[in-house]
Amino acid sequence: MTLYADIPxxxxxxxxxxxxxxxxxxxxxxxxxxxxxTRNGRPGKKNDKLNEGDAINYTIPEPKxxxxxxxxxxxxxxxxxxxxLVINKPKGLVVHPAAGHQDDTLVxxxxxxxxxxxxxxxxxxxxxxxxxxxxxxxxxxxxAKNDRAHTFLASQLKDHTMARTYEAIVCGSFREDSGTVDxxxxxxxxxxxxxxxxxxxxxxxxTHWEVVRxxxxxxxxxxxxxxxxxxxxxxxMAHIGHPILGDMVYGHKKPELGQSSQVLHxxxxxxxxxxxxxxxxxxAPLPAYFQQTIEKLExxx
Length: 301
What we know:
Helix content is about 20%, strand content about 25%. By secondary structure, the chain is of the alpha+beta class. The strands form 3 sheets. Strands 5, 6, 7, 8, 9, 12, 13, 14 and 15 form a 9-stranded mixed β-sheet that branches. A hairpin with a 2-residue loop joins strand 12 and strand 13 (about 220-225).
């Protein structure tokens, strides 16, 4: 595919992430590193500064064969049609295969349930997965069945038109009833497994929140993501002094109310359908662990 630069001085990887179909910044950089991108007929570099009118040609290679074992598991499918499905992921289920989790992930289960009826745009490790949520976060996850649907849904993530709403229990009480955290997120300087609010090598991150109910020492909030950075809600809430209950990475280091992992649930997902653009709104009720936490809080007064 050929595109033409329209902003003088823009980096090649940034241009591709902005104009390329369904490409993230990291995906664009990977294509460049693999020699799949040319600038005016010559191999490009990710930090090339473009001139207006430069011809940028890129090729997305065919996905590699999936070498992941299909695994039978119960999947809570809350929406499905010929183009996509939406899964209500339980707390504790890993989404993608990784060290220590090779055959017990959501991807393994999807391969068993759908076989070849999944998009391959993300290559061998993430067939069909359009976006992701943490292992210990429960809730809704969109899965594409073909590359056209995957590209269309990914573009909505990119331009922030896919609405994702989360429920969370956080520590402490808010004076306000609602607010916005607008703070860039990047890798933690000393712990590469963590993220943090930082101006260095970061990306813009915006989280809107509102109070659902106040309890003694805790608050039930609803968060709407404007962007989708890794661990965004967890990092933003900790940054403003209200870490998520049970989040022992970004919050308190000891279990509270029986929770040793974050009480965070992706409860609502709204997007335009890839076939006809109609709005699709999907809900997932609060899971048992979340409800049980609320019952404990109610007893506390």
